[in-house]
């Protein structure tokens, strides 16, 4: 099967097309034909070799953690999925390929309420937002929620979670994103590139999430939070807080809920409340576009980038009966 990966660390151009063998799924696995996969900043860091001490890669390495696809084979012990199901999978690597095998308990069914492209974009930011809220914040009923970076992937999911639970949300992003912020329900919007006077928002949120890219919020979370409140930092950074008695917590990847629990939360919320994810770039399954996707993220191009695998016809499921 066709995949894209690399055999050395370096620039986006290290990507090569790889002909990768895929075995039949193990008894507890399903085999998924990938329809689309999301590109994450984590993929870029792996390719650059920034994690080579803590996560040395075996080459050739095919990255990719977030995908949506269709089940094409089912292991003997799997009872909760059938051939033809549309599913979402979060995995350590391998999504940049035509097929993957995934342990069934790491897979959730894609609801019709999430488009395929949204579903491919959901896992990494969805798991981060879910854990930040449920395991690193102490949100009480009626708390006012502040979100620096409210229109980003993580920030917009946090805002929708907060609105679905009846919280008032104050959020910041650039002025260009005000309409999207309103659309996802943000009550009060701070345009960080236009709003010079922050005094009217000062000390107005009980819990503030810093979901800006790299945590560069120019001190906004500190000015938003009330004395005695809480700041939850999504990016890994040191943050200097001047507001008195503020509890600062860091989201630690891998700690918190199981990934499946987090994904199931978003699946349910998409059915009961509705979930919006903004996909900005839809690219093709070619080496040129995989390189381009990495270049876009390196250039801090905002919005989600998804690679879509187009097929002239869908797989015939190798002799098995199609799902309804
Ligand atoms: N620990 C984890 O598991 C985990 C998982 C996912 C993400 N993250 C981290 O979380 C952060 C957010 O990720 P993301 O994918 O949501 O990023 P993103 O989609 O690029 O969103 C960044 C947001 O920050 C806003 N922003 C930029 N500069 C700002 C400023 N000075 N003040 C206020 N807002 C500002 C952007 O608004 P404009 O576009 O209008 O400028 C945008 O709304 C990243 O650092 C990422 O690495 C961590």
UniProtKB/TrEMBL annotation:
Presence of keyword NADP: yes
CDD domains: MDR_like_2
Pfam entry (one): ADH_zinc_N
Superkingdom, natural source: Bacteria
Stored SUPFAM superfamilies: GroES-like, NAD(P)-binding Rossmann-fold domains
Entries under Gene3D superfamilies matching the protein: Medium-chain alcohol dehydrogenases, catalytic domain (3.90.180.10), NAD(P)-binding Rossmann-like Domain (3.40.50.720)
Record-linked SMART domains: PKS_ER
InterPro entries: ADH-like_C (IPR013149), ADH-like_N (IPR013154), ER (IPR020843), GroES-like_sf (IPR011032), NAD(P)-bd_dom_sf (IPR036291)
Enoyl reductase (ER) domain boundaries: 10-307
Keyword list, A-Z: NADP, Oxidoreductase
GO molecular function, one term: oxidoreductase activity, acting on NAD(P)H
Official protein name in the record: NADPH--quinone reductase
Naturally occurring in which organism (per UniProt): Secundilactobacillus oryzae JCM 18671
């Amino acid at each position: 099967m066709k995949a894209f990966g690399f055999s050395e660390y370096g620039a986006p151009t290290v990507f090569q097309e790889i002909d990768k063998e895929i075995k039949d799924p193990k008894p507890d696995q399903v085999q998924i034909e990938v329809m689309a996969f999301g590109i994450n900043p984590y993929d870029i860091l792996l390719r650059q070799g920034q994690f080579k001490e803590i996560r040395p890669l075996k080459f050739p390495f095919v990255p990719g953690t977030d995908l949506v696809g269709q089940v094409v084979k089912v292991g003997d012990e799997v009872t909760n999925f059938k051939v033809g199901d549309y599913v979402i999978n979060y995995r350590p690597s391998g999504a940049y390929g035509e097929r993957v095998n995934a342990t069934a308990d790491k897979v959730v069914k894609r609801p019709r309420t999430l488009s395929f492209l949204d579903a491919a974009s959901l896992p990494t930011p969805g798991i981060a937002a879910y854990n930040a809220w449920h395991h690193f914040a102490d949100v009480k009923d009626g708390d006012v929620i502040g979100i620096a970076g409210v229109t980003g992937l993580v920030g917009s999911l946090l805002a929708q979670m907060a609105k679905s639970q009846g919280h008032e949300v104050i959020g910041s992003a650039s002025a260009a994103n005000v309409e999207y912020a309103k659309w996802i329900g943000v009550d009060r919007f701070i345009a960080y590139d236009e709003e010079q006077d922050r005094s009217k928002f000062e000390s107005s949120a009980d819990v503030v999430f810093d979901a800006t890219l790299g945590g560069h919020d120019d001190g906004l979370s500190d000015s938003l939070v009330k004395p005695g409140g809480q700041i939850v930092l999504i990016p890994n950074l040191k943050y200097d807080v001047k507001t008195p008695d503020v509890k600062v917590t860091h989201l630690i990847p891998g700690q918190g809920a199981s990934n499946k629990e987090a994904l199931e939360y978003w699946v349910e919320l998409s059915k009961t409340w509705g979930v919006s994810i903004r996909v900005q770039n839809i690219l093709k399954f070619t080496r040129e576009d995989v390189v381009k996707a990495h270049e876009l993220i390196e250039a801090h191009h905002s919005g989600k980038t998804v690679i879509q695998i187009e097929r002239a016809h869908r797989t015939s499921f190798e002799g098995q009966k199609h799902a309804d």
